[in-house]
Design a protein that fits this description.
- This protein folds into 2 domains: 247 residues, Ribonuclease Z/Hydroxyacylglutathione hydrolase-like (Metallo-beta-lactamase, Chain A, 4-Layer Sandwich), CATH 3.60.15.10; 143 residues, Rossmann fold (3-Layer(aba) Sandwich).
- The chain contains 12 helices and 23 strands.
- The strands form 5 sheets. It has an 8-stranded mixed sheet. Strands 18, 19, 20, 21, 22 and 23 form a 6-stranded parallel sheet that branches. A 5-stranded mixed sheet has the order 13-14-15-16-17, with no helix packed on it.
- Strand 5 and strand 6 form a beta hairpin.
- The chain binds flavin mononucleotide and fe (ii) ion (2 copies).
- The site of one fe (ii) ion has 6 residues, from helix 2.
Length: 401
Amino acid sequence: MESGERGGAVELARGVYWVGAIDWNGRDFHGFTTPEGTTYNAYLVVGEKTALIDTVKADFAGEMLERIREIIDPAKIDYIVVNHMEMDHAGALAELKEHTDASIFITRRGRDILDGYFKPSGCDDWDFQIVRTGDQLILGSKTLVFLEATMLHWPDSMETFLIENSILFSNDAFGQHIATSKRYDYEVGDLIPAAAEYYANILMPFGVPLLRYLGRLKEYGISPKQIAPSHGVVWKRDLDKILKAYTTWANGKVREKVLVIYDSMWGSTEIMAKEIAEAARKAGVEVKLLHLRKNTRNHIMKEMLDSAAFAIGSPTLNNGIFPSVGDFLAYLKGLRPPKKKAAAFGSYGWGGGAVKTIEQELKNSGVELLEPGIQVRYRPEGSELEMCRDLGRKLAEISKE
Ligand SMILES: Cc1cc2nc3c(=O)[nH]c(=O)nc-3n(C[C@H](O)[C@H](O)[C@H](O)COP(=O)(O)O)c2cc1C
Ligand SMILES: [Fe+2]
Ligand SMILES: [Fe+2]
């Protein structure tokens, strides 16, 4: 049965059910703006024994329990697999444990994190089984294999493969932040943009562990027929597409694309931004002009994922950068986009300061500085505009290399 509805639960294969929750109105996921909401996916695997893979955010425990009850009394769950202890997947664990004595299968690091979250309410009487890569959990006719996926997304992250049905429960990897009543990729159109935005904002710093992990899937001969992540929908039609996209992103592959990212108080920095962008466009590359208070951080990072170079501009405000520019640079520093080249620009009035601060922060983010930034006193004109055009052309040339 494909995507067969059985009440609110969805059967992905015989005896395998999605029993997660849909966060239709979630608009902020720890700083990631989610205009389309998200889902927290939990999966029930029913063999002779029953395992629940992941739970949901605490507020959605009731919704998950309702879906589980359509299949089985929660008291009959034998095992709970905790792929990742972050609260969007493990938050409902405490409430779930009030209904079941199920043993918890978790990595050593996950167990430590669990202590950090649940100690005050007490989890000392819970039964834990610490698992490592290659360990199996046999449910009778169904077998789960655990695969540690360190740093995808936290130190404890793990994925679980259901051998008989070839389903990889990949937790945060391959996710997308969209709320939908559909459960499969082929039911919702092109998912790659949503997956790219998710990757750029959640997994971008972890390209190296990701490539190692993808290699290990091959080593273990795991070629899933379905990839069931913990956010968004299940990959079934576009498996090759998403695996290829992840390899491309993790390798930091870029194309002929330039971003001009900026903010402006009285329009001077904006004139510079437009001049840079227009010159790059005329040089024949794709350009995106992105105002920092009119675009979300996560949208800009999605655009950055496949761009080769960018310019970032700020007016000087009280000797430093504009707050939205600071916000973005702090975010960028954490995500450390690989293989990017950049330059700074901005307008100032007297002492200046913004361009210098931007350059320092770009260096701290592992971004290669192309040339000293352009600083213009008040409105740019004549030769200053020419310098902006030169920068635009240079960014375009660099992105063609
Ligand atoms: C609230 C405020 C604070 C400013 N502080 C500084 C400053 O500390 N140093 C400086 O060189 N210019 C300062 N300026 C001047 C601006 O940097 C200058 O007007 C610049 O042209 C603004 O660029 P924009 O048109 O892109 O906003 C300040 C301007 C404003 C409105
Ligand atoms: Fe996570
Ligand atoms: Fe997550």
